[in-house]
Design goal:
Elements lengths: L2 E5 H8 L3 H10 L3 E5 L2 E5 L10 H11 L11 E10 L7 E8 L6 H16 L8 E7 L7 E8 L3 E2 L8 E2 H7 L1 H6 L8 E7 L2 E5 L3 E2 L12 E7 L2 H15 L6 E8 L4 E3 L5 E5 L1 H8 L5 H10 L3 E5 L2 E6 L9 H12 L19 H15 L3 E2 L5 E2 L1 H7 L6 E2 L10 E2 L3 H11 L7 E13 L2 E13 L5 H14 L5 E4 L5 E11 L2 E9 L1 H6 L6 E7 H7 L4
Parallel strand pairs: 4-7, 4-14, 19-23
Antiparallel strand pairs: 1-3, 2-3, 5-13, 5-14, 6-13, 7-10, 8-9, 10-11, 11-12, 14-15, 16-18, 17-18, 20-22, 21-22, 23-24, 24-28, 25-26, 26-27, 27-28
């Protein structure tokens, strides 16, 4: 969870309370706090980014104490700022707002504001990849018309903290933040910029311009949020504006964002959730009535209207963590205090038992371990090159946006994983006898099949069909399966040395010797025999499991 540092005297001034009392209230809000060297360190739950700043923290504390309840929409005026959005394919969305009379009156508040920005970058912004925030002195903006557009990286501007203008290319290639974040939105020799009367004020998500830097004495703040996701951009802007406008005398300025999805920002529109008292009481095991629920919800910052047996709840725009009844019930529990809830032990209506597939798998494990096999566990993802070698590529489903190319397809057969394992263990003492029980996903004519399979493999100086036949036959007979075996073919086993197991006319699986040419491609110097059995089909043929 994020740990934030607040100047202790500023927080106590905001709340007018003693440290011990504050610590207890913060604990109820799922936060842990500790004061050290004049700073209050607070570990805030990651789902409450609205509490990443002193004003947001104070708002939550005042609410739970009943000092300030509900949510009031702030005063909103037309700022006169206009933002024209051009085509920015690498980071298409941008929203903006102005908050007047923020009044950065101390270095402590400025320090906290920068911390707030960076914690939002790390959380909602996913380390600036999803969203990035620009904070500017609104009174220093060169003009009221802004433009968000791609531009050549050889353009000149004066980055924050620099003494003279440089090319954007130098920032991207030499500056610490440029190297860390410059790749996110760059496209060849182009990068997104925000211009104000042809002056660059920021290069998102990397660095602001020095022209509009915040400092002690700044009165009003212009906020821009660029993102790859409009919903995330709007949520981030709402949180920032809601916290800044908590300053005494602060109010909001609308920015006209001219884009296909644009309009006046910030929207600050509350989400509406409708529920009944029984919905909350079912979750909490309580018996709260509508009047009690209304009072508790207002203390958690919600506005409430009762319509018959329905509570219509306005969720403040800064509460991006609230999705539905369970989230609201959790807030009610916080307002009550978990220590005041009386939980009752749930009495199950029926007794649980192992699934037949689990019992079958356990029996198989005992049998195979007794036969000298070692159980292994492999990933369900595997390499497309491996499946190509085995002739199984056409049966595999690909994963969109894989983390690694080597693990970009779902395995259609357990033997693929076992052969990959043997490739990495070819120098182990012989014989190598392994098995795995796990899922496969295979593309078949007319759809996709998911199945639980058993795979076996034997590798030795000399291996024949009988080396895999013997353990498979023993296992099936020990389980009481009445089976037959008939000749079969697979892309990776030798014709004439491959069989398929059949029960009641249904094919359970295959067993056979791996082709020498496949072993050669896998760089396996020893012969291998493999088997694969469908446990789902095997279970259907057995009554006692």
């Amino acid at each position: 969870m994020p740990v934030l540092r607040f100047r202790a005297e500023r927080v106590y001034e905001l709340l007018n309370m003693e440290p011990r009392e504050l610590s207890e209230i913060l604990f109820r809000l799922k936060c842990e706090s500790e004061e050290s060297e004049g700073y209050l360190e607070v570990e805030v739950n990651a789902d409450r980014p609205d509490m990443f700043m002193g004003e947001g923290l104070a708002r939550a504390v005042k609410g739970i104490l009943g000092v300030e309840v509900g949510w009031r929409k702030p005063k909103i005026v037309d700022s006169g700022f206009k933002l024209i959005v051009e085509d920015v394919p690498t980071r298409p969305y941008i929203v903006a707002a102005v908050v007047y009379n923020v009044n950065i009156d101390s270095s402590y508040y400025l320090e906290e504001l920068i911390q707030f920005q960076e914690k939002l970058h790390e959380g909602l912004g996913r380390r600036r990849r999803k969203a990035a925030i620009g904070l500017h002195d609104a009174d220093k903006m060169p003009g009221r018309t802004l433009r968000y557009a791609m531009a050549p990286i050889d353009v000149m501007f004066k980055p924050l903290g620099y003494t003279k203008p440089v090319k954007a290319r130098e920032v991207l290639e030499r500056d610490e933040k440029g190297v860390e974040y410059g790749w996110i939105s760059r496209s060849g020799d182009l990068h997104p910029f925000i211009f104000s009367d042809n002056e660059i004020i920021t290069m998102p998500p990397v660095l602001n311009s020095d022209i509009t830097k915040l400092e002690v004495g700044t009165r009003s703040i212009f906020i821009d949020v660029t993102s790859t996701d409009l919903q995330v951009a709007e949520a981030t802007l709402n949180i920032i504006v809601s916290n800044l406008v908590e300053r005494p005398g602060a109010y909001v300025g609308i920015v006209d964002v001219i884009a296909p999805w644009g309009g006046p920002y910030p929207r600050l529109k509350p989400k509406i959730v409708r529920l009944r008292s029984v919905d909350v009481n079912r979750v909490l095991g309580s018996s709260l009535n509508y009047v009690e629920l209304e009072e508790l919800l207002k203390r958690m910052g919600y506005n409430v209207r009762i319509e018959g047996e329905i509570l219509e709840i306005e969720v403040p725009p800064y509460r991006v963590d609230v999705e539905g009844v369970v989230d609201i019930a959790e807030d009610i529990a916080i307002a009550i205090g978990y220590e005041r809830l009386n939980p009752t032990l749930w009495q199950p209506g029926m007794r649980g038992e192992y699934h037949g597939l689990t019992r079958l798998s356990r029996s198989i494990r005992l049998i195979l371990v007794g036969l000298g096999f070692t159980e292994v566990m492999r990933l369900s993802l595997t390499s497309p090159q491996l499946l190509e070698t085995l002739g199984l590529r056409g049966e595999a489903l690909e994963v969109l946006n894989p983390v690694q190319v080597e693990y970009s397809v779902l395995r259609p057969a357990i033997v693929a994983s076992l052969l990959d394992l043997l490739t990495g263990n070819k120098h182990s003492p012989k014989p190598v006898k392994v098995f795995e029980i796990g899922p496969i996903v295979a593309r078949v004519e007319g759809g996709v099949v998911e199945d639980e399979r058993l795979g076996l493999a034997v590798m030795d100086d000399e291996v024949s069909y009988e080396d895999i036949q013997a353990p498979v036959y023993y296992m099936l007979r020990a389980l009481g399966v009445n089976f037959t075996v008939r000749p079969a073919t697979t892309p990776y086993t030798i014709n004439g040395r491959t069989g398929e197991v059949v029960v009641g006319g249904v094919k359970l699986g295959i067993l056979g010797e791996v082709k020498p040419e496949v072993l050669e491609k896998l760089k396996l110097e020893y012969p291998v025999a493999v088997a694969e059995i469908s446990l789902g089909k095997l279970l259907e043929s057995l009554k006692e499991y």
